[in-house]
Specification:
Elements: H1 48-60, E1 65-72, E2 86-93, H2 98-103, H3 106-112, H4 116-120, H5 146-162, H6 164-172, E3 178-180
Parallel strand pairs: 1-3
Antiparallel strand pairs: 1-2
Length: 191
């Protein structure tokens, strides 16, 4: 898989609206002319790698990608954001969850989960069939049938339940499992 401390992200590594929160625009940014992510920076570029690593570690547990991080804001005149605010952000990143997939009835798993090498690569959704792309559906799609909607709901709800204490703590203002820069190994942003 992709290591954010060894290589800058590409379009197949991470959704294109996440890196701009750290002032990082993907190489092919601009392909979608209806979106302008260039003004969305809220956090330092140096924090991107370790935040992604925290999400990757959570996903590697098989429980979905959820991480609470302590970050400091950078100045953003476009959004009127002042620099220097220490904030806790609980990131819930839509992703596959191996433990959830393992618990699916075999007939659903066969239709919804990639098989072979694609099944081992958590960045890959199902190719073809009634759940093609699951769970990585494009947000431009305006209609999903009941099967796709229910499967995505089931996955999302399961991930929230798996991380309920962390998410509830964030909502209550008493975050738990907070990671901060320097808690893990250094992760400089590659050139």
């Amino acid at each position: 898989g992709w290591d954010p401390c060894l290589r800058a992200p590409g379009v197949k590594d991470v959704d294109d609206d996440f890196p701009p929160f750290f002032g990082i625009l993907l190489d092919d940014w601009g392909q979608e002319t209806s979106y302008d992510f260039s003004r969305n920076q809220a956090f330092a570029k140096e924090d991107f790698g370790w935040v992604v690593r925290a999400l990757q570690e959570s996903q590697a547990s098989g429980r979905g990608a959820v991480a609470t991080t302590e970050l400091e804001t950078v100045r953003n005149d476009w959004w009127g954001l002042q620099a220097g605010f220490r904030v806790n952000v609980t990131w819930v990143y839509l992703s596959r969850a191996a433990k959830w997939e393992d618990a699916l009835p075999p007939e659903v798993r066969q239709l919804a989960v990639p098989s072979g090498a694609a099944g081992a690569d958590v960045t890959q959704g199902r190719k073809g069939g009634p759940f093609a792309g699951f769970p990585y559906y494009g947000t431009g799609r305006l209609h999903y049938d009941e099967g796709n909607t229910n499967l995505l709901w089931a996955l999302s709800g399961w991930i929230v339940e798996e991380h309920l204490d962390e998410i509830a703590g964030a909502v209550r203002g008493t975050p738990i499992n907070v990671r901060a820069r320097g808690d893990g190994p250094p992760c400089p942003l590659p050139p």
